[in-house]
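Thread amino acids onto this structure.
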């Protein structure tokens, strides 16, 4: 029969209902295994309340009495819930006696207004003593033969109160002697111990884990079980990384590295006693007892992943020491760390450049200024002689650790880490890697902690799967169609392209809404309609930046110039942009170049294929021509799906004004069709193509034919405009008849040749490629050095929300890669 010891943390015994669940786990375990001891922490939050009481008493604050009454009430309520009436009196009496002792100590502190670390340890001991006593009696009521054990009489320490060091030989002997005489399950206090003079000491926060490890090691059990509130050792903090998962197995060394750098599931001192005996530690979830959890052992299980986990310390300060005096100066490191040790300052991380010119040391922020002063004092001679600069302190940093024994055999791990961080605009302040190659640690800004964890987790654990966090402005025809396509393509994107597209933010002209878990695309409209936050593009983009999510993409499906003005700021913050909105790229030429350069500088993407030709590969094709060294000298074609539809369909059977109304209903026009009929849309598209081809044109350089007289733009509303439009039908009909009489057709054509650009309504004959266009077709002909005699031609639908949103989705996918 397997022998084991168990430990349950404070969250596992936070309420009577949870304690009943723990008792059931102990009862089931005891039927099949030899359960030697069960270690329990204080009830959840009790230790914090005990410390608060002590501090209040020290300040002379009478509120400590009220808190003591709350603690008494909570423990008595647990007794009444767990133990039948007939067995309550003795337990209640024991609890009251303990609390009387606690009250006496607190009263003494209140009178003398002094709280020593020794006294504080004694006060903190009451949490575990009370919980273990009550649960021991409750276990006996459930027919589990148990005894209450106060571990202060077994675990001996030095007198470093607050975080005492265990005296191993005496402790092991005490444990072994006690358990030889006691065969019942020992319901044991965690966290607390005593000195050789029998003064109460504590093992530091998380000391209950250490207690169970000491018991397991001394008793040489087959397994140590630590029951907590998560499913084992996670690949990352699930509060930071939603897709974090439980690792089936890790090694002792991996667990120690992860726990040192912030993984809260197990505390660093716990590992050593178990490792010395080769006893596996099993991390289990009290609230999911059927889940296997994580096994911590020597072997560490399979080699599926190159790394085993990510952890972080979310608040550190970095001390920087620089100067030529560090180069070749013997003993300088010893002096620096000796000074810190003398000041009892723990160093979390150390890096030094191979040139020896600079050194970085990470410490907790509360020690930063003291550490700076100690080093400045130690190196004052070198500083005075300007051989070393005064120590500088950088705050608001965190340390992220990438841990795994398999890193030793896997090349390119560091490159993969830095690539994931670089793609998301995460700057690194310092890097450290141990000689064991078990851990790569990076220091970075605290604001980037979550983004960095998510980026690296995706890179290593999701088999190349990447999460894209999307923020969409404009949920009209194109935006709504895009959301529908993402929903429809979900399986393909997820299974074939390994992409998880999450819609985090939506905005239209009236309101906006964010959902950190991602909108449910089956009912996003209902979810969005519940929003009460007024739309504000500056606030929308500010929130995107503050969220600081990895792989963030801003999608602009508006035609709004104000929205387009946000691109530069977003790109500077490592947020990619995909948009069919032409306003940014058809503005000032310097701004056009600036956006592209900003994207490159910040290692993000700025994609706008749908600026011209909806989903047709026009812009990308021209970019490929230019980047391969081809020389483009002529571009010609029909660039407006709206005008293409109107003139392809205009046969005189119905008035032109009626055709415009039908086109608007089908979603082929802008909300205000005058924006199509004035030729400006085509001019903007031609301008963008010209710029991509290498011509530094401005919008004013393009000769534009407007299809409407000025009075039509004076109409205040679209409805009023449509009432006026029939007055111009005769002009369109005359132009149509004139063309038809010559065997030609009307087409609104854009033309660029040798840097000169124009847009105009032209009559094209049957031999012209634009003559045979249908519906919303766009056509672009490119003449270049390589395509001289015969042009390169792209033709296809160039209007409609579906083809445009398809092009936007294609841009999003390209951003991912």
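Threaded sequence (817 positions):
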């Amino acid at each position: 029969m397997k022998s084991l010891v168990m430990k349950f943390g404070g969250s596992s015994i936070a309420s009577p209902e949870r304690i009943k669940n723990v008792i059931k786990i102990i009862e089931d375990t005891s039927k099949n295994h030899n359960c030697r001891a069960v270690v329990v922490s204080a009830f959840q939050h009790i230790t914090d309340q005990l410390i608060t009481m002590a501090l209040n008493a020290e300040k002379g604050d009478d509120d400590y009495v009220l808190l003591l009454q709350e603690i008494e009430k909570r423990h008595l309520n647990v007794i009444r819930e767990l133990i039948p009436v007939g067995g309550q009196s003795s337990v209640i009496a024991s609890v009251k006696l303990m609390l009387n002792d606690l009250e006496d100590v607190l009263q003494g502190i209140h009178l003398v207004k002094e709280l020593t670390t020794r006294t504080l340890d004694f006060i903190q001991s009451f949490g575990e003593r009370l919980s273990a006593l009550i649960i021991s009696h409750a276990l006996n009521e459930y027919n589990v033969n148990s005894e209450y054990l106060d571990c202060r009489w077994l675990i001996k320490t030095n007198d470093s109160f607050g975080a005492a060091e265990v005296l191993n030989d005496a402790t092991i002997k005490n444990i072994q002697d006690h358990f030889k005489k006691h065969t019942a399950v020992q319901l044991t206090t965690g966290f607390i111990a005593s000195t050789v003079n029998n003064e109460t000491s504590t093992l530091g926060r998380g000391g209950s884990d250490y207690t169970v490890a000491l018991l397991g090691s001394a008793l040489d059990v087959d397994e140590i079980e630590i029951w907590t509130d998560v499913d084992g050792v996670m690949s990352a903090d699930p509060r930071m990384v939603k897709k974090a998962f439980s690792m089936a197995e890790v090694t002792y060394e991996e667990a120690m590295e992860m726990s040192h750098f912030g993984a809260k599931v197990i505390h660093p001192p716990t590992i050593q006693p178990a490792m010395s005996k080769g006893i596996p530690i099993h991390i289990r979830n009290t609230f999911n007892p059927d889940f296997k959890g994580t096994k911590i052992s020597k072997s560490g299980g399979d080699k599926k992943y190159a790394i085993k986990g990510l952890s972080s310390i979310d608040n550190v300060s970095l001390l920087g020491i620089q100067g030529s005096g560090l180069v070749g100066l013997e003993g300088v490191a010893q002096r620096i760390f000796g000074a810190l040790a003398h000041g009892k300052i723990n160093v979390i991380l150390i890096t030094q450049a191979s040139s020896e010119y600079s050194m970085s040391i990470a410490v907790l922020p509360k020690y930063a200024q003291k550490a700076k002063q100690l080093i400045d004092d130690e190196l004052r001679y070198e500083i005075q002689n300007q051989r070393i600069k005064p120590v500088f302190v950088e705050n608001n940093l965190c340390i992220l650790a990438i841990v795994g024994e398999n890193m030793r055999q896997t090349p390119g791990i560091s490159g993969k880490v830095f690539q994931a961080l670089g793609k998301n605009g995460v700057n690194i302040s310092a890097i450290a890697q141990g000689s064991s190659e078990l851990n790569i640690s990076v220091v970075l800004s605290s604001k980037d902690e979550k983004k960095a964890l998510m980026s690296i987790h995706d890179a290593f654990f999701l088999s190349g799967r990447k999460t894209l966090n999307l923020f969409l402005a404009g949920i009209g025809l194109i935006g709504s169609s895009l959301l529908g396509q993402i929903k429809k393509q979900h399986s393909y994107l997820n299974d074939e392209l390994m992409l998880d597209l999450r819609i985090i933010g939506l905005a239209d002209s009236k309101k906006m809404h964010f959902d950190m878990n991602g909108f449910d695309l089956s009912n996003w409209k209902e979810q969005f309609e519940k929003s009460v936050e007024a739309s504000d593009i500056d606030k929308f983009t500010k929130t995107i930046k503050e969220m600081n999510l990895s792989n963030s993409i801003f999608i602009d499906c508006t035609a709004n110039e104000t929205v387009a003005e946000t691109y530069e700021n977003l790109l500077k913050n490592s947020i990619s942009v995909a948009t069919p909105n032409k306003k940014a790229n058809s503005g000032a030429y310097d701004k056009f170049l600036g956006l592209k350069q900003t994207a490159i500088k910040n290692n993000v993407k700025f994609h706008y294929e749908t600026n011209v030709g909806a989903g047709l590969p026009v812009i990308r094709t021209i970019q490929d021509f230019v980047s391969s060294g081809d020389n483009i000298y002529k571009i010609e074609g029909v660039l407006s799906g709206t005008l293409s539809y109107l003139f392809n369909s205009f046969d005189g059977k119905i008035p032109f004004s009626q055709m415009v109304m039908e086109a608007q209903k089908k979603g082929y026009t802008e909300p205000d069709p005058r924006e199509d009929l004035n030729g400006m849309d085509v001019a903007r598209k031609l301008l963008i193509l010209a710029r991509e081809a290498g011509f530094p044109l401005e919008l004013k350089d393009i000769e534009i034919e407007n299809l409407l007289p000025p009075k039509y733009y004076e109409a205040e509303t679209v409805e009023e405009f449509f009432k006026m439009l029939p007055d111009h039908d005769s002009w369109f009909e005359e132009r149509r008849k004139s063309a038809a009489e010559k065997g030609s057709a009307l087409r609104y054509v854009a033309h660029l040749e040798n840097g000169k650009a124009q847009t105009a309504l032209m009559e094209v004959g049957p031999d012209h490629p634009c003559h045979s266009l249908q519906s919303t077709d766009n056509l672009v002909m490119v003449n270049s050095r390589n395509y001289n005699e015969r042009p390169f031609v792209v033709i296809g639908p160039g209007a409609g929300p579906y083809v445009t949103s398809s092009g936007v989705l294609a841009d999003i996918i390209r951003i991912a890669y």
